[in-house]
């Protein structure tokens, strides 16, 4: 589920703006968004703790929140196409949660708080789960996915489904990030026509603009990290197995994972705490090594970087593949000083020795293709209603090539054709020899090897270069905003030719990598970095919704008084 297309073009000059943001961080005192005389931040900045405080003190209700976020979605949807579907039950769910709160029955910190989820995570309700394909329009699942069920159990309101790169970017060699047949082209909010990256494109755009508290994305190789980076967000790509994947449209059981995309590290931590854990429907979650999920929110500690040994796998910052990423590397190098001044020890050149062999080999393509051929039919076989009778990749391929709105052959289906030509699935010896090579090069000769050989706590990379090695072995990554392209950046198109892939003001990020199930550690490091830099607040979207909670609350009070 989720494969990020590489961004081929980059801008020209570095920018690293963390100093200027200390001023922007004051806007919690913004009086125009105060509610009944009580200060409240604009929704583009409101955190979990702000929302909890407002709900607890009766400043607003969960129904108010649903109405405010819905109004904001409708304000920008015709420009950005980031939300595929709104939950028709959201208001009644919020009303129920409000009355439960009134009776003292609060499920947790997310009680009554709206969250958007990517349109490949199934819910057994009035919403579709399509991965953006007409082949799955109207299809039904027998129950909620574990992830959706956990969100509901935590009291969150599932507000709607976000647009994505169709099939999580696993269909075509020549398409655009954030495009799906069902919901059209998603755009980023930091430049007109911005490539939103993918495949969790709509989740990234929605979370960044405050169209919900936060959103969930999915990742196979880069699909949380990359759209988090270009949409100015914190993204957590969890260890494969920390979050259950049942009833989530798959690419690869060995690489798929589900995680939060939020405006702050702490918000992302609250969301991860709600969705992490074992599930009888996904036995990869059996690998979770602890009985109780660690307290990810408590891990947000300003001193977390103190005394930590942090490695830089310098040979991955490979500008020969992507020379225009030079400005990102400059900003990254400057940011290493932030870690040093927070008490971390930086060990440079902790290189990943498997890098060249991995690039030359074809193991990762083969692993994903064989997994997809195996895992897609397992998902389809669980549908309780399958209106187009698609049961395997051949069926989906045929549907896509014969259904005009799928935009074939303009957007090709070569990824699938290549997978079908492979002629084996993930039970074959050929699969296992490729999987073994892949995980050896990315593990012992990559992430886990560097951690052990240099006695490191964690590794850091520009997010641009961070997804691939962790993707192949299923280890976690957390990305935090680092900067944005400067005003004089030359605008460059994506390869499909319909999006501005590099342009002024497009954000980029800084990634922390660690061993399997090290989310608690990485969240702490990311928080300590975020609190010292506060880059996000200094980068502003060119388009923003204007409805705030105060508008919804005042309208309600006016209605009540007539
Ligand atoms: C206060 O919030 C409003 C609405 O988000 C925004 O337009 C305005 O610029 C903010 N003012 C300050 C001083 O941040
Ligand atoms: C507004 O605030 C005042 C005092 O601060 C309080 O007495 C009143 O109940 C509040 N009104 C609403 C509708 O919450
Ligand atoms: C991309 O940016 C250029 C230059 O600012 C602008 O003219 C064009 O409209 C943008 N593309 C889209 C799809 O908005
Ligand atoms: C999960 O269960 C399947 C059979 O249902 C088995 O083939 C597979 O090895 C198990 N995987 C793990 C990681 O336990
Ligand atoms: C925060 O981290 C520091 C440094 O590791 C540690 O000494 C301190 O106890 C931590 N604080 C909390 C509240 O965990
Ligand atoms: C690590 O990689 C960098 C960049 O390719 C190179 O300059 C450096 O010599 C390498 N260091 C080691 C120890 O291999
Ligand atoms: C790599 O694998 C893909 C998919 O199986 C195939 O299309 C491609 O030709 C292979 N390339 C090489 C160099 O073997
Ligand atoms: C291919 O799809 C078309 C229309 O969607 C359908 O009529 C036809 O039977 C399908 N062919 C196969 C071989 O599945
Ligand atoms: C990988 O898969 C290919 C078939 O595409 C096979 O020829 C090869 O032996 C497999 N194993 C390795 C390690 O390349
Ligand atoms: C990709 O698609 C675009 C738009 O149809 C086309 O202009 C371009 O030539 C295609 N590129 C490749 C490499 O096929
Ligand atoms: C589905 C949906 O609600 N679409 C809305 C998108 O935004 C435009 C303009 O704001 C509305 O007219 C649509 O109804
Ligand atoms: C809810 C919403 O705004 N959905 C829109 C997503 O994008 C498609 C394609 O442009 C629109 O048709 C939907 O209305």
UniProtKB/TrEMBL annotation:
The answer to whether the entry has keyword Transmembrane helix is: no
> What keywords were assigned to this record?
Signal
Transmembrane regions listed in the UniProt entry: none
In terms of PROSITE patterns, this protein maps to: PROKAR_LIPOPROTEIN
**Gene3D superfamilies, alphabetized:** Amidase signature (AS) domain
Residues annotated as signal peptide = 1-25
Q: Where is the Amidase domain?
A: 64-520
Which SUPFAM superfamilies does this chain map to?
Amidase signature (AS) enzymes (SSF75304)
Superkingdom of the source species: Eukaryota
Protein's UniProt name: Amidase domain-containing protein
Give the organism, scientific name.
Cladophialophora chaetospira
> What does the record give as the organism's lineage?
Eukaryota, Fungi, Dikarya, Ascomycota, Pezizomycotina
């Amino acid at each position: 589920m989720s494969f990020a297309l590489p961004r081929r073009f980059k801008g020209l000059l570095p920018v690293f703006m963390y100093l200027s943001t200390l001023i922007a961080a004051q806007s919690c005192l913004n009086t125009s968004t105060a509610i009944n005389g009580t200060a409240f931040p604009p929704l583009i900045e409101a955190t979990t703790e702000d929302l909890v405080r407002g709900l607890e003190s009766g400043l607003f209700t969960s129904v108010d929140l649903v109405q405010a976020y819905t109004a904001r979605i409708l304000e920008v949807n015709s420009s950005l196409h980031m939300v595929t579907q709104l939950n028709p039950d959201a208001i009644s769910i919020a009303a129920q949660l409000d009355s439960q709160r009134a009776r003292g029955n609060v499920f947790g910190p997310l009680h009554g708080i709206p969250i958007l989820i990517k349109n490949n995570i199934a819910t057994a309700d009035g919403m579709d789960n399509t991965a953006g394909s007409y082949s799955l329009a109207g299809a039904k699942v027998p129950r909620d996915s574990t992830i959706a069920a956990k969100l509901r159990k935590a009291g969150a309101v599932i507000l709607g489904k976000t647009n994505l790169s169709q099939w999580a970017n696993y269909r075509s060699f020549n398409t655009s990030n954030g495009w799906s047949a069902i919901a059209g082209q998603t755009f980023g909010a930091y430049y007109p026509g911005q490539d939103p990256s993918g495949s969790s494109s709509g989740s990234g755009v929605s979370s960044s603009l405050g169209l919900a508290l936060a959103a969930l994305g999915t990742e196979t190789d880069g699909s949380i990290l990359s759209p988090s980076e270009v949409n100015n967000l914190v993204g957590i790509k969890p260890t494969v197995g920390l979050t259950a994947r049942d009833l989530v449209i798959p690419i690869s059981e060995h690489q798929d994972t589900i995680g939060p995309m939020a405006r702050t590290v702490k918000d992302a931590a609250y969301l991860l705490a709600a969705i992490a854990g074992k599930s009888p429907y996904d036995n990869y979650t059996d690998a979770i090594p602890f009985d109780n999920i660690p307290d990810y929110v408590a891990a947000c500690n300003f001193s977390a970087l103190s005394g930590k040994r942090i490695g830089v796998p310098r040979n991955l910052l490979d500008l020969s593949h992507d020379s225009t990423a030079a400005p990102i590397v400059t900003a990254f190098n400057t940011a290493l000083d932030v870690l040093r001044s927070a008490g971390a020890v930086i060990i440079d050149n902790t290189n990943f020795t498997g890098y060249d062999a991995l690039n030359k080999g074809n193991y990762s393509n083969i692993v994903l293709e064989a997994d997809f051929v195996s895992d897609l039919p397992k998902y389809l076989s669980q549908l309780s209603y399958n209106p187009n009778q698609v049961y395997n990749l051949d069926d989906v391929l045929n549907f896509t090539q014969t259904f005009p709105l799928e935009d074939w052959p303009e957007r090709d289906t070569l990824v699938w054709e290549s997978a079908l030509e492979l002629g084996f699935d993930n039970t074959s010896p050929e699969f296992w020899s490729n999987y073994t090579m892949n995980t050896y090069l990315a593990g012992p000769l990559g992430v886990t090897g560097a951690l052990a050989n240099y006695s490191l706590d964690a590794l850091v990379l520009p997010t641009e270069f961070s997804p691939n090695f962790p993707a192949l072995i299923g280890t976690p990554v957390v990305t935090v905003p680092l900067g944005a392209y400067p005003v004089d950046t030359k605008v460059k198109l994506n390869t499909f030719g319909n999006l501005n892939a590099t342009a002024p003001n497009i954000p980029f990020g800084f990634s922390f990598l660690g061993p399997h199930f090290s989310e608690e550690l990485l969240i702490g490091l990311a928080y300590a970095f975020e609190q010292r830099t506060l880059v996000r607040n200094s980068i502003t979207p060119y388009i923003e919704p204007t409805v705030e909670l105060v508008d919804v609350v005042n309208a309600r009070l006016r209605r009540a008084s007539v």
